[in-house]
Design brief:
The chain has about 170 residues and is mostly helical. It is about 90% helix and about 0% strand. The longest helix has about 30 residues.
Length: about 170
């Protein structure tokens, strides 16, 4: 195996392991994960807003000031009212998982073209990830803690199936 190919496969495996670990963390601690996400988003928005206001004072363009004030307001909203934001997080993470699942569906058909006999297992895993994403779209606010567990399950399935694919492709040479 070439050095470049080995490097790519190690990166693929590292991402798969991180996805698996992230999945387990989300499953074991869903409420904390959602609160941490809301806090990180809030702090990030405030920091970005402060940067925009700094640019206003440097460049004297009103659009920087307006955007900075809006971003700081949104950041404060995240920190003051995290429950309202949790519903939005459910939507965003649901959309992310749907996109991830769609990519994995495409990957399953690529595996079929490559001659991998159990390509359909990959397709099943991709379908599960898509279904979890859809569940978040249809009921994001009421299942914020449960949704973090479902997201974790999605990452876990994705990570384990990627590790499985890594092992299959490594066997094939």
């Amino acid at each position: 195996m070439s050095e470049k190919k080995l490097s790519y496969s190690m990166i693929f495996l590292a991402i798969a392991v991180m996805s698996t670990i992230l999945g387990l963390v989300c499953i074991l601690n869903p409420d904390s994960i959602t609160r941490i996400l809301v806090t990180l988003v809030g702090v990030s928005l405030i920091a970005y807003g402060l940067i925009e206001i700094y640019q206003f004072f440097s460049i004297k363009m009103n659009s920087f000031l307006v955007l900075g004030i809006i971003l700081i307001g949104l950041g404060l909203f995240c920190l003051i009212n995290p429950d309202a934001v949790l519903g939005l997080i459910g939507l965003v993470l649901g959309l992310f998982l749907i996109c991830l699942g769609a990519v994995e569906v495409k990957k399953s058909f690529d595996l079929k073209k490559s001659g991998v006999r159990v390509w359909w297992l990959w397709l099943i895993f991709a379908g599960i990830v898509c279904l979890i994403g859809l569940s978040g779209l249809f009921n994001p606010a009421s299942i914020s803690g449960l949704f973090a567990s479902l997201i974790g399950f999605g990452f876990l399935v994705n990570g384990l199936s990627s590790i499985w694919l890594f092992l299959i492709l490594k066997k094939r040479g």
